[in-house]
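User: Please run a holo structure prediction.
Assistant: Happy to. Please share the sequence and the ligand.
User: Here you go; the ligand is magnesium ion.
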Amino acid sequence: QQQEEPAPQQQAGDKAPTPEDPQLTLATTTSTQDSGLLDVILPDFEAKTGYQVEVIAVGSGAAMSMGESGDADVLLVHSRAAEDEFIAAGHGVDRHDVMYNDFLIIGPAADPAGIKGGNDAVAAITQISESEAIFLSRGDESGTHKKELSIWRAAGIEPSGDWYNSVGKGMGDTYRMADEMQGYTLIDRATYLANKGNYSLEPMVEGDELLFNPYGVIAVSPEKYPNINYEGATAFIQWIISDETQALIAEFGKDQYGQSLFIPDAK
Amino acid sequence: MTVLFKLSNITKSYGERQVLNAKALEIRAGNIHCLLGPNGSGKTTLLRIMSLLTPNDGGHLEVLGEAVNWQPSQLLRLRRQMAMVTQSSFMFEGSVYYNVAYGLRARKTPKKEIQQRVQESLELLGMSDFIDAPARYLSGGETQKVAIARALAVRPRVLFLDEPTSNIDPSSSLEIEQYIKHINQEYTTTIVLITHNFFQARRLAQHTSLLWEGHIIEEGPTRDMFHNPQDPRTRRFLKGEY
Amino acid sequence: MTVLFKLSNITKSYGERQVLNAKALEIRAGNIHCLLGPNGSGKTTLLRIMSLLTPNDGGHLEVLGEAVNWQPSQLLRLRRQMAMVTQSSFMFEGSVYYNVAYGLRARKTPKKEIQQRVQESLELLGMSDFIDAPARYLSGGETQKVAIARALAVRPRVLFLDEPTSNIDPSSSLEIEQYIKHINQEYTTTIVLITHNFFQARRLAQHTSLLWEGHIIEEGPTRDMFHNPQDPRTRRFLKGEY
Amino acid sequence: MDVIGQGVKEGILLILSLDPELIQVTLLSLQVSLSALLVSGLLGIPAGTFLALKDFAGRKLILNIIYTLMGLPPVLAGLIVFLVLSNRGPLGEWQLLFTPSAMVIAQVLLGFPLVAGLSARAVMSQRQEAYDTAVMLGATRTIAILSIIREARMGIIAALTTALGRLIAEVGAVMMVGGNIQGKTRVLTTSIVLETRMGHDSRALGIGIILLILAFIIMLLILKLEKRSFKDDSTIQII
Amino acid sequence: MDVIGQGVKEGILLILSLDPELIQVTLLSLQVSLSALLVSGLLGIPAGTFLALKDFAGRKLILNIIYTLMGLPPVLAGLIVFLVLSNRGPLGEWQLLFTPSAMVIAQVLLGFPLVAGLSARAVMSQRQEAYDTAVMLGATRTIAILSIIREARMGIIAALTTALGRLIAEVGAVMMVGGNIQGKTRVLTTSIVLETRMGHDSRALGIGIILLILAFIIMLLILKLEKRSFKDDSTIQII
Ligand SMILES: Nc1ncnc2c1ncn2[C@@H]1O[C@H](COP(=O)(O)OP(=O)(O)OP(=O)(O)O)[C@@H](O)[C@H]1O
Ligand SMILES: Nc1ncnc2c1ncn2[C@@H]1O[C@H](COP(=O)(O)OP(=O)(O)OP(=O)(O)O)[C@@H](O)[C@H]1O
Ligand SMILES: [Mg+2]
Ligand SMILES: [Mg+2]
């Protein structure tokens, strides 16, 4: 039932030299924290580089506005279009792909919309809207929400009605609500796997290319905010796209769920 | 004459200290009964026990013919026949009217009658002009007068007066005494009066009890007590007369 | 003799109603000056203005030789030479000791001396036994005695007494009168006394003023006032004598 | 800093726009908080009065527990109500989760201890004389106790305004059991959280300003009510 | 429902485990809330007393604004402090964001109106006699006012306990300006939110229970303090 709290790894032996400014603020989406990924990989970074990472877990939107105001040094987010805008506006530099996971549509075992087993997201949501089965939308302009909206757009549907619930919450909370309301929702695999023991919803649709969810890392622009820790951000980026870390990411979740939660894809 | 209050061996202690130990006391219907005694001798405590505001520790208490069992229903029934002017004359926040009408409202008297009775009572005490004044702004004597009016408004069978004219000017005081006598005679209202004014006691009371450190050390017709006190302490106390 | 309080045309209104209009009043150092008058005639109001607790609306007020400007520093300086027993004898939450020591603590008296003076004052009032009792549980008369002790403890130059013995038994009352006389003579403490007890006024006061609906209608040596009142209202009021 | 200025501007624009969604959210906020306040008051004032006046074994303990529950985290209150009302919970059949009723229930859990605890304090500071005078004038116990409550009204109104403040500002509980569903259970505070999560700071501030204006108006009404019943509104004169 | 039972169990196990991380989180909770309470008290009691006693133009308005600010949503308080302390904000140079100091500042924004408003109420309900008696005994204005505060202590302690309850339970503000950083700004309430987000309901409940026990102990201490200074703890006798 209970998810094991991942114990921070104690790195024995060689101590890393302490950097000039060891405080590094990472603004990220709740999914990386709530899934437990950061608890597993960050100790490795801290041990190797001597940085101390402060994790602020918020929505992708808030994470980026934190970067915009210079309140974070480095971002780990998943909202591709917004990320590009962010770079274009000069708020950030050094964007790299880190990993991806995928989304799936989950729903109640009774499956009132009859979509179970398919792999066509557009067809599935069309059916959900036609049968007016309960659907929960994150509704918070998060990466997940934007993904959902893009699928509706692809289906040519403007979702509205009593069956369409825009809940304005994080993924974990939305999952909880969907379970209570026995409704369908779009969820990232990491959150789904981490919590599925607690709830009864089942996977309905997965494997559609539309459901691909890339995470990127961005350093906040040192030109805009000279007092941010750009050096640390660079170290973080170098570390997270390094082969060793990528391997760590690939391993994460395998022992517990039998599959990786995130697929590394740094180039 | 019926005995309205019958006390035997009534005791009351606060902490270690016994402040009241009344062996025997009877108060007869239609009487004006005065309680005298030095400060702290237990007069107010005794009055509070008779008016069922403070439970006694030991002894037997009979009020208006009933052994007191301190059940709410009994208390309400008995208290509805009493009224009291306390030493501090507490006023509820609100107007003089609100305060004087309080007891009548509690008895669900019709509004018309309340208005009439309040006006009547205030007039008797010469306080009609203050009917709409906030009760808490009254002067010391005015407050006491309103407290008396408030007690009279309910036309009680028994009236407890704890130093009711201590802050009232002499001429008003005499008028009030007249009125106390009047209701005692006209409506046979029984009155228990605490006072430090010996003249007032002599003018009003048929009976007097003298308290001393919680004990009733002398009791009898008021005239006898003043003319021929038995206890040396009574004699000493009454010499403080002015 | 110096004039400690000099009032001319002092007025005070509450809302529409003028409750005080004192054309002229002087209180001389070393005197015991009594204020008489029916309830609501403005005695307490006048006392509160003289003790700088209530600002007057109009007129000119001189206290202890200074024209009053109501500046905090002046108020403090003047009040430090006064003490007061109010009609309601407010007690701070805490013990009798706490209350009697209050004024001494405010003056930063050394602790040793405070203890001694508190004990002295309480003894004078016969209240030593109550030194550790919670002040709010005292009987009416006991409270008043503590209030007097509290005022005496600071050894004021001027002492205001607003019906100070209204709840006190006659023999204690006489003792207190003796003590008031004593400090008046020994320490030339000036005393302004409000009382409804004409005997007390005659025993204590050299001077008396009589208030009537806010006006001082008669003023003079106490003896003259009682033997030969000028105003018909004074005569009527003093006839209420008992 | 200009975000704050912009927030004020946005707040005014929001009010002027009369956006139907915002009106609906505002009305729901009012409805939920005022209902919870009403229930908290109806339960809390009698409970507080009872605890202040009735001496029984365990009274102190209960009072201390109530004071402690003033520190009940809204999220925790929300979680408890969630678990009780959840499909798997004992009252799951009632199907109340994610409805305004559930939000009211969770808020009562927060409002009740506040009203009860502060009312108990207000009543305790009243004087014996008030009760004595009332019963000696022939009041039943109940009426006498009502009179004490009347004398304690300053403190009790303070209890109600404090509770209202807490309830209208609270987000943890309503978020948990209401679910912040647009058009259904979204209220002002959950909107603020949502807007901040989306990084719309000035809009969040704007909604916050609307909420504060609302609170201001309600406080004025409550205080008016108090004034109307008592004319002599004295303060201590410092001279 | 067994989640609640399990939550209680987990709470006990958590306490017994003496988990160093949990201890650190608990201590930080205490430190932040008590510091904020201290500052709120040091500012709020004088401010409330001043507003209760000093008559000046605009006094009523300020009082009403303070009553209104009792309804300041924690998220909003958090947001405002966030904007002020943010790098782009006017105090960005202080580098306080995501530190316990920032959390204290945001909580003071919540605690101050509560303490000031309730203290004002408590002082207002005192009687003129208290002040008069004090100054006639030679007290300076300040000492006389302190005596009034002493008489009003029941209400002021209620103000402090209420504020403590709100601060220790509050999550919106500390989450916003603290950021819930593990080992640095994570406190009990933000842990509860995190655990519920991860679906660990019974652990969330367990932490909640620890928080309530803590609140209970502090309330006991505050009330003990109050008792120690005054022996005559009378209640009204209902007979
Ligand atoms: N704050 C107030 N507001 C309105 N009226 C007041 C206020 N204080 C006093 N009064 C009125 O002013 C008048 C004079 O009051 P004051 O207390 O001076 O009378 P007093 O002569 O001391 O009477 P007593 O002998 O009854 O003590 C009274 O009629 C009283 O009702
Ligand atoms: N609640 C209490 N706790 C402790 N002592 C009390 C309490 N109430 C009264 N006493 C004490 O009991 C004694 C008797 O009080 P009581 O009020 O009956 O006196 P009294 O005869 O009415 O005096 P007075 O003439 O001064 O009014 C007093 O010494 C008083 O201090
Ligand atoms: Mg008495
Ligand atoms: Mg007077």
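Residues 20-53 of chain E form the longest helix (34 residues).
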